[in-house]
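Tokens in:
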């Protein structure tokens, strides 16, 4: 383990860490990132993205993009989430991120307890985003990319406050949903959105 308490694996093998962001929101896509770190270009401060401020996440995301051997970000949109459910959509985004890597990894390590379909050996690691550096890096990239996407959605649908809550079911978001109704990027299979649609005559 390094001084951050994060496990460092065999430097000779290319290990892609994978994580997602955006399973809980009522709107927008779910994002996933895959990162192969370069052992010769270490990045200090990697940890679970939820433990970092926005400013620190964005700083680290820039370093990851600059120093990683390879990285990729992918997503599954709200329609895919509604069609196949959020778990399967998250795994699909993860598969897409791994497939998009410019360098093929020897193995894949994923945060959580479910594995996406990839052609490499894959392992799920519970709380991997706080244990494995490459998964921490992936969690940061996925979060930064999704937040940026939701800020863009705010420019299209400003009445919902997506720039603040990023689609999560905060009181402000639920009030906006009640006041303005469902917008095109809302996940219609999610209970609060579905309940609103069922109440609308």
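Residues out:
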């Amino acid at each position: 383990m390094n001084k951050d308490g994060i496990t460092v694996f065999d430097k000779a093998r290319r290990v892609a860490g994978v994580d997602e962001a955006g399973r809980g929101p009522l709107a927008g896509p779910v994002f996933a990132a895959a990162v192969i770190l370069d052992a010769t270009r270490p990045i200090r401060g990697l940890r679970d993205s939820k433990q970092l401020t926005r400013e620190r996440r964005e700083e680290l995301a820039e370093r990851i993009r600059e120093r990683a051997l390879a990285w990729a970000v992918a997503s599954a949109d709200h329609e895919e989430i509604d069609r196949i459910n959020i778990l399967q959509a998250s795994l699909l985004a993860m598969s897409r991120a791994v497939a998009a890597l410019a360098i093929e990894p020897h193995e894949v390590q994923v945060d959580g307890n479910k594995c996406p379909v990839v052609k490499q050996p894959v392992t799920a690691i519970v709380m991997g985003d706080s244990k494995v550096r490459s998964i921490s890096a992936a969690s940061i990239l996925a979060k930064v990319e999704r937040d940026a996407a939701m800020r863009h959605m705010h420019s299209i649908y400003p009445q919902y406050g997506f720039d603040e809550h990023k689609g999560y079911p905060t009181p402000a978001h639920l009030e906006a949903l009640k006041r303005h109704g469902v917008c095109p990027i809302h996940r219609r299979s999610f209970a609060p959105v579905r309940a609103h649609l069922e109440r609308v005559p």
